[in-house]
Amino acid sequence: MGNVEIAHEFVAAYNAHDAERKAALMTEDGRVEFPALNVSHGGGWETTSGSNAANLVDDRTIDVQRITASGDAVVIEMLWHGISKGGPGMAPAGERVEMENCIVLTFRDGLISRYTEYIGRYEGIDLLAIRGRMLERRQPTR
């Protein structure tokens, strides 16, 4: 599979809510980064499972608007949307939330080695509160 096909497979796995399939597309040392939130996780996609969108929304979906590939990178322009579960930083439960974002996937040896998501327009989400929730979930339990 080429990088563009792997990018499409990643989106399909995300939309199917298949964490194992997503993780299998990343290198073991893969990084997941959200620069606007100043959040970066190492060790592939699975390290974000406690703080990912699945815990914030139901029916989360990436609608690909455009894909551009160059060298070892694929850029995905997308509309992400879901139904809020409520809670800090989110619209009331049951309301639609959405973001127009851009994902840059960097590849190494046929796998995603870096996932970087740049946040554009968003509705129904308070990014500072979400950042706090993401960092809180990463703290070790005592």
Automatic annotation (TrEMBL):
Residues 8-115 form the SnoaL-like domain. Gene3D superfamilies: 3.10.450.50. This is SnoaL-like domain-containing protein. It comes from Cryptosporangium japonicum.
